[in-house]
Design brief:
This protein is of the alpha/beta class. The protein contains 10 helices and 14 strands. Helices cover 40% and strands 19% of the residues. It binds alpha-D-tagatopyranose.
């Protein structure tokens, strides 16, 4: 374990004080949590029997569900877990949380880094402090920090979205990918998988990918403007929960929801409502609960000297007709 310099220690302590005032934490001892709620616990947040999960954002049921899986598995294995996430999916908000957790010195940390580059230094510092780091969902581009990475196959998910959309629009017309910001490993791979697969359909024309941030209002505005400018728009691939929520709202408001087919990524309850009502035709659902479970298992393996491994979790295509049989894929808004 590398010693922290006094300056680094001071910076970490200051971050910890700042975070203590944010009230964004919850722990395995709390019986419920939600995207907007917060709670704290007196269970120890340092030492080898303590874990932490740093979500991409607490305002997203994907990460709420991941937190539920992580808490259940930590409790099962006799560990405490401190779950924290920024209000927005944004590196400047997530980095102080990472620094604060490093200062608390848990045995291992599960983290969904919000940017492939910006999180490298704080995660490296965490590793240098002797904390085992497990990546869940997203990754940084430096592969030497984490002992394991747990994620679904995002390239494959993007390809599945392309096949579904092509089927829905009769393999012709303009399509667009609506994405959050650049620099997020998962959604970048979804776009890559989608654009690669869509080449198989010569009569489908992909428009330039739109980057709208992880923000439903911006996504709604952008898709409304795009629909006004492209009357031949036939299909949209919305790459995650908050973007998909905005796309659904934008196209509903523009009265275009029946004309333009939408394939969304993820299975937030709001997206499932839109699927049932026919606003959206298909959802590519992940298994965030399992990612939390697997992440804790790998963290505990690392702490107990057992071998660790990276794991690809499952994906499923949800449609109105298979939804009843696939209800286990719908994300939770509380545990
Ligand atoms: O799609 C998930 C996650 O996989 C992605 O990395 C970021 O967005 C979500 O959290 C959903 O909004």
């Amino acid at each position: 374990m590398r010693r922290r310099t006094p300056t680094a220690a001071l910076l970490l302590a200051l971050s910890a004080v700042a975070i203590a005032g944010c009230g964004s934490s919850s722990s395995s001892s709390s019986s419920s949590s939600s995207a907007k709620s917060s709670s704290s616990s007196s269970s120890s947040s340092s030492g080898s029997k303590s874990l932490a999960l740093i979500q991409g954002t607490k305002a997203d049921n994907f990460y709420v569900t991941m937190g539920c899986g992580a808490k259940a598995e930590a409790t099962k294995l006799g560990y405490s877990i401190n779950v924290q996430g920024p209000a927005d999916f944004a590196a400047p908000e997530q980095i102080p949380i990472v620094n604060a957790i490093t200062a608390q010195h848990p045995g291992a940390v599960l983290i969904a880094p919000t940017d492939t580059q910006a999180l490298i230094a704080p995660m490296q510092q965490m590793k240098s402090a002797g904390i085992k780091v497990v990546q869940v969902d997203t990754t940084v581009s430096n592969k030497s920090i984490a002992v394991a990475s747990i994620s679904s196959d995002n390239l494959q998910g993007g390809a599945k979205a392309a096949d579904e959309l092509a089927k829905l629009i009769g393999s012709k017309g303009s399509v667009v990918v609506m994405n959050e910001q650049p620099g997020v490993s998962t959604t970048e791979q979804r776009i890559q998988g989608f654009l690669q697969e869509i080449k198989k359909f010569p009569n489908i024309k992909p428009l330039a990918t739109q980057y709208v941030g992880d923000n439903p209002s911006k996504a709604a505005q952008a898709i409304t403007a795009l629909f006004a400018a492209h009357s031949d728009l036939a299909g949209v691939f919305a790459t995650n929960v908050l973007v998909a929520q905005g796309v659904d709202t934008g196209l509903k408001t523009a009265g275009a929801a029946s004309k333009v087919k939408i394939v969304g990524y993820d299975a937030d309850p709001t997206q499932v409502t839109d699927l049932k009502s026919g606003v959206v035709e298909a959802l590519i659902a992940q298994e965030p609960y399992q990612e939390g479970v697997d992440g804790v298992e790998q963290a505990v393996n690392a702490l107990t000297g057992k071998p660790t491994q990276s794991i690809l979790t499952g994906l499923a295509v949800l449609t109105k007709s298979n939804l009843a049989a696939m209800s286990k894929y719908v994300y939770q808004s509380s545990c």
